[in-house]
């Protein structure tokens, strides 16, 4: 009986340490919704690129007008903002249900470590867009987002690390098929978010 109590104490201490060092209120449902937002965004981007009179050329060497690029940036920004807002709202809701503080040391470290690769990639991609090097935009968004997930994963649920590795792999593969960047983008930000978000939801949230 005494040994059983010791095991319970050790388990409780381990759980407390895990909560203090990791942000475990990350919502899997927000990942699912972010995936659907990305798929909708990919569809709108597809319509803009391939059914717009301002674009010319074959599938692998399209020439896109400035107006079309602006529309694509608006679509991408809208998807990003919706995903972030959804993630924040659902994570706050999850934290409140488990009586946890959302903005703590672990969540601050999570945000900082996530934003460093993401911001670096964002500035680099903006430079490429300015120089009309558009073929690498989709692969690099996947790669830098994947690096951000891997870098931040040590401060949240371990599944985020595998999401990041998958994103990096898709981004690298996409560099070999530059004409199909939008397809890889939809597969990564859409399909992978839905897949890993579902795994996280059923693993940690559904009771």
Automatic annotation (TrEMBL):
TM stretches of this protein: 23-46, 68-90, 110-129, 135-153, 160-178, 184-202
Protein name as catalogued: Brp/Blh family beta-carotene 15,15'-monooxygenase
Keywords: Membrane, Transmembrane, Transmembrane helix
The keyword Ribonucleoprotein belongs to this UniProt entry's keyword annotation: no
Keyword hit for Membrane: yes
